[in-house]
Amino acid sequence: MANRLCSKKTFFLKLSTLFVTGILMGGLLLGCSNPKTESKSEPPATPTYTLITLPDDGYQKIYDFIDSANKSIDMTMYALIDSNAEAALIAAAQRGVNVRVLLNSNASDGGTVGMNQPAYDNLSANEVQVVYSWDGVLWHQKSIVVDNQKVAIMNCNLVAQYYPILRDYVVITDNPATVAGVSITFEADYTNNTVAPVAGDVPEGSELVWSPGAEKHFTKLIDSARPGTTLYVETEQLDSTVLENALIDAVKRGVTVNFTMTNTGEFTDGFDTLKAGGVNVHLFPQNAPIYIQSKAISVNNETVYIGSTNFTTTSTNADRNVGIITQKKDIVDGLTATLIQDFQEAPAY
Predict the structure, then answer these.
(1) 116 and 217: one domain?
(2) What is the rounded CA–CA span in Å between residue 140 and residue 143?
(3) pLDDT value at residue 114
(4) Residues 301, 182 share a domain
């Protein structure tokens, strides 16, 4: 009897030991066979922004941007008369890059009939796909999208003979929203080039400002200038009562408004209006070593606009233009420093 009890105790002890061991082993096996396989997803890369100040930084950076393409280039350009830029586009096409170019066909506002025809002929003869825009308005946009991954938003045309004297700015960014907005709009403009410009695409976070339709965005930006701050403007043309009044209203609420242009006779009425309203107007003479072709605004030393839209009603409300309004510090600081320098160097009106 004692042996049986002992045997039973031994049996149950072994059974308990096996049960506990099984649980421990099971846990270990489960731990080994089911590790936490979910890896922490990498946070989205912070978009990069690069400012090119012209003529100081030179145009090689633009050629290099074109040369960086591996898959595609979509360019919209008001004026293209630059053998180096054409050669870069052709070289890209001949190495298998899908290169599409949309050129302005409207001859008004300083253009000439056939201005872009030599480039059109050269590119189309060398594997680049080229079309002309609808000729009802200026297709004044200047932008280049590379590989649908990065975009150059530009003040400047690609007209080499004027490079040494033109004040212009270019922003290159890989912000996916900005790239997408310009790419989508290019597709619409390129494939529907017999109609007026459609509304430009503005994805959330893209910072894009399109014309037609830029006037309200410019007004809002100017209206955001705080009393006690300095607002800087550079533009090539001035013929917008709405924007002139917005600048004068800023002066009235205590903003210092510093306005820089090249002195062009056809815009004298605008200069007089701004000066009478308290805006500090400084104008480079026509024979100065720098010509203001830029279109730029700096507000509160924290927000800037760079793009192709002039301070005219036609440019903001009818023509095709694109720009960005950004608060990226490097862009703000670099642009504002040049705006200050230009204002100081241009004589007071």
Answers:
(1) no
(2) 10
(3) 86
(4) no
CB contact at 8 A, 298 and 335: yes
27-79 tens-digit pLDDT: 433 343 444 444 556 667 899 999 999 999 999 999 999 999 999 999 999 99
The answer on 215 and 192 residing in a single domain is no
Which amino acid would we find at residue 346? A
Distance CA(167)–CA(91), nearest Å, equals 28
CATH code of 253's domain: 3.30.870.10
Does the pTM exceed 0.90? no
pLDDT value of position 42: 66
From the list 135, 145, 129, the residue with the least C-alpha distance to 65 is 145
Contact 325, 305 (CB under 8 A): yes
Same domain, 284 and 239: yes
- The domain of 254 spans 210-345
- Rounded to whole angstroms, the Cα distance separating 254 from 260 reads 19
CB distance 342 to 283 below 8 Å: no
DSSP for 244-275? HHHHHHHHHTT-EEEEEEE--GGGHHHHHHHH
Residues 139/78, Cβ–Cβ less than 8 Å: yes
Read off the pLDDT of residues 212-225 as tens digits, 9 standing for 90 and up. Answer: 999 999 999 999 99
Tell me which residues of the chain have a pLDDT lower than 70. Answer: 1-43, 109-113
* 154 and 214 housed in the same domain: no
User: Are 154 and 229 members of one domain?
Assistant: no
Q: What is the pLDDT of residue 2?
A: 36
Q: Are residues 214 and 199 in the same domain?
A: no
Do 123 and 47 meet the contact criterion of CB atoms below 8 Å apart? no
Residue type, 289: P
Residue 35 domain-assigned (yes or no): no
